Amino acid sequence: MTESCATCRPERSKARLMPFGVHVVCGLPVVTRQRQKIVPMAFGDVVEIGFGSGLNLPHYDSSNVRHVIGVNPDDGLPQLGRRAIDRHEVSAELLVESAEAMSLPSQNADSVVVTYSLCSIPDVEAALGEARRILKPHGRLFFCEHGRSPSAHVAKWQDRLTPPWRAVAAGCHLNRDTGALLRDAGFALEQHDVFDLGLGTRILGTHHMGVATVR
Questions:
Q1: How far apart are CA 164 and CA 208, in angstroms?
Q2: Per-residue pLDDT tens for 175-193?
Q3: Per-domain residue ranges of the chain
Q4: What is the CATH topology of the domain spanning 17-214?
Q5: What is the pLDDT of residue 19?
Q6: Cβ neighbours of 67 (radius 10 Å)
Q7: How many helices (H) and strands (E) does the chain have?
């Protein structure tokens, strides 16, 4: 019994601290500046995949957005997300469920927003398939993600480091190719910018930002 409890304590501590750590890192000024570029482009009825602690809420243009439905698994972050909804003026609600199997009706959203989430969704292909399903025919998917570098040398290191990185960073992948994932899920890339965020290493600093439409 004692050995079992001693083994469980670090896991329980990690489970409590990880949501706060994700909130702090994803709220860094350099990351917030990227949110400020992409989130205000959303319009109409919005579904945000990977709502987390609600860090995108201040950046929605309330004059262009009717309502935001945030989708997030029960990973400790929804409690912070609900507090954010209470603090901000944009109309919003939170669905605590998997992005890979959303309960939302098909062709229901004008905009889907996903920021700093595709890296850690377990079945990212299924989640993007769901995003395509819920988007209206002329809707838009707005994305900002860190991901695979166009440099073969950097990408090789991303592949090598992803397994240990996932173990300490809540399942985050360093090497997911955002553009390829979107195209494979049936999206057309209307805009796709790949750039180095300047974090000191392109292994983590390579970013993908843009707009996708349903093919």
A1: 22
A2: 999 999 999 999 999 999 9
A3: 17-214
A4: Rossmann fold (3.40.50)
A5: 65
A6: 13
A7: 7, 7
DSSP 68: E
41: which 2 tokens?
Answer: 């482009």
116: region left, alpha or beta (phi > 0 left; psi from -120 to 50 alpha): left
Structure tokens at 5: 């409890």
**pLDDT of residue 123 exceeding 70:** yes
Whole-number CA gyration radius for the chain: 17
Of the CA atoms within 13 Å of residue 139, those in its CB half-sphere come to 25
Q: According to DSSP H, which parts of 135-208 are helical?
A: 152-168, 178-184, 202-205
Q: Which residues pair with 210 in a beta bridge?
A: 143, 192
Which runs of consecutive H residues, i.e. helices, occur in the chain? 2-26, 29-38, 78-87, 124-134, 152-168, 178-184, 202-205
If DSSP codes are grouped into helix, strand and coil, which group holds residue 111?
strand
Q: How confident is the model at residue 74 (pLDDT cuts 50, 70, 90)?
A: confident
This prediction has a pTM of: 0.89
